[in-house]
Specification:
alpha/beta, five-stranded mixed β-sheet, 2 helices, binds 2-acetamido-2-deoxy-beta-D-glucopyranose, Leu-rich_rpt, glycoprotein, repeat
Length: about 230
């Protein structure tokens, strides 16, 4: 084979190879993009089907699979990726449970289900909501222990579990929430002593724990608490 032919064959194959790489790259982008928005839709459809009462028909008509979830009531999306960023279903008279699918909303930064009658335990899969900054589950009928995995939601700034039927102890892992500013767990069935670590959470500004079965001292480090 002469050099000229050899080099043009090489160029040809390199070109094809690079085209193929580009093809796989773009296909994987498209596939993964669709997968994630579909995953978000599945998660919200699962939530809708675990809601047993919707007295004002907020979701019955509005949460139609014919439309993008970004147009659904209470949902906002990230403009760049079309992923669900906030879910706000506060004070809608809803009753039901949280399905494990909700843990698939990996872009979620705010979840507000406050002021409804959601019940049962929180699914462990919520541990995957690593971007979550605000979790408001207050004024519902949630039960089960305050989950140990809550300490893995390391972006949490506001955690409100007030007025539910949560039991167990305050998990020590809570001290892992280094950017937590608000911790409201009052009016539950939480027992045991307040972990020493709570007094050392440097960003904490609002701490409300009244009406539980807590005992023992609260160690203050450098915070001013509203108790
Ligand atoms: C659902 O509600 C939102 C906000 O009120 C509205 O913008 C949207 O058009 C509604 N979608 C349907 C299908 O009714
Ligand atoms: C959704 O689309 C289907 C088929 O295109 C249609 O039959 C149905 O009425 C639509 N539902 C709503 C709520 O628009
Ligand atoms: C989402 O989460 C559920 C339960 O955690 C799981 O069964 C499901 O396969 C996940 N993925 C999709 C694409 O819905
Ligand atoms: C949390 O939910 C409760 C009950 O709906 C509401 O009163 C409160 O304002 C909410 N807090 C935040 C920070 O959204
Ligand atoms: C504490 O947070 C880190 C990430 O910041 C996480 O890897 C670790 O699992 C968390 N620990 C607990 C006990 O949740």
């Amino acid at each position: 084979m002469n050099n000229k032919l050899y080099s043009s064959l090489c160029t040809f194959f390199t070109y094809c190879f690079s085209l193929q790489l580009h093809y796989y790259f773009f296909m994987s982008l498209i596939v993964s993009g669709t997968n994630f928005t579909t995953r978000d839709k599945h998660a919200l459809v699962a939530l809708k089907s675990s809601i047993t009462q919707d007295p004002h028909h907020f979701l019955t008509h509005n949460w139609s699979t014919n439309f993008s979830v970004c147009n659904w009531f209470g949902v906002t999306c990230d403009h760049r990726h079309g992923r669900v960023r906030t879910l706000n279903l506060g004070d809608m008279g809803l009753s039901g449970t949280i399905p494990s699918h909700l843990g698939n909303l990996s872009f979620l930064i705010e979840l507000n289900l406050g002021g409804n009658t959601f019940h049962h335990n929180l699914p462990q899969e919520l541990v995957h909501l690593r971007r979550l900054k605000s979790l408001n589950l207050s004024y519902n009928e949630f039960s089960g222990n305050v989950p140990q995995w809550i300490g893995a939601l390391s972006s949490l700034q506001h955690l409100n579990l007030k007025n539910n039927r949560f039991g167990g102890v305050i998990p020590k892992s809570i001290s892992n929430l280094t950017v937590l500013e608000t911790l409201e767990i009052g009016h539950n069935l939480i027992e045991g002593s307040i972990p020493y670590e709570v007094g050392r959470m440097s960003q904490l500004r609002i701490l409300s724990m009244s009406v539980n079965h807590l005992s023992g001292p609260l160690f203050f480090a450098w915070n001013q608490f509203v108790l």
